[in-house]
Amino acid sequence: MKVLCGIGGSDDSFRALDRTVERAAVANDDLTIAVVDNEDSSVSPDEVVERAEAAADEAEIDAEVRRVEGDPGSRLVEIAETEGFEEIVLGGGHTSPMGKITIGSIAEFVLLNAKTSVTLVR
Amino acid sequence: MSDRGYPNAVADEFPPPPTAFTDREDREIEIRPYAGEEAVREALVEMYDAFDPADRAQGIPPGGEERIREWLDAILCDDCYNVIAWCGDDAAGHATLVPDGDAYELAIFVHQEYQRAGIGTHLIRGLLGHGQANGVEKVWLTVERWNRAAVSLYKKIGFETSDAESFELEMGLRLHAGDDEDADPDDGDE
């Protein structure tokens, strides 16, 4: 399957990265990892790119890691549409001190606007 | 966290527990703070184990006894504030303040057998009274925007919406004047 994994540096996005890479190695997915701007993230995009490349190397898969600038949600939807991706994978949300799950604005936009299936990784 | 919004005005004074009242179903209800009692923790495990999954909000309370215990360990912590509504020996409802930086996150649950009887209002007022008595300054919460009963309860109490741009509404309340500069309304975009 042709999979687009969008990550911005939040904890849940790294969880999504690890799970997607793991799955791609087993299912032989054609994986692209899009590193997007997330203003709430404390990790710089360059570091996120490094983490993504390291994860792909470690799993011994041939994933493309791409830096995507601009509005994250709309860019991910646009890339999925123009390049024929079949699935978008994102982090499954932030957990508050109380244990409440909140879905971020990127996931919200993608869920509502994507034509492909969307997976949120918990 | 630090960029959350809170009203400039300080909320009313809320009655610190213990308090007692008769609910709309003529049940005698007592509101008492949690003070680390093992029996109270077990009563809460029982209440949440019997909790209707349809009343879950944003993943809490979790399902299954093991996850419930894990979650309770986190929210019954020493620097958390918890109050429970009792009907005899049964926990009818529970409200909690969990520390988050210089503020506290609030959540409240009323068991389905005890809903729509006025317990939620007493319980949240009791929790905020308990927090106020212990010097809590700022409280925030998130609520699913379709949950009108909860949103109107929070508004009635004095919570103001601080973020309306996602699935969940975020609301804030100021319990004490405090000495931070957050009260400065230079960041208001609403």
From TrEMBL, chain A:
Where in the numbering of this chain does the UspA domain appear? 2-122
The protein's name in its UniProt record: Universal stress protein
Q: Which domain of life is it from?
A: Archaea
Database matches in InterPro entries: Rossmann-like_a/b/a_fold, UspA
One Pfam family here: Usp
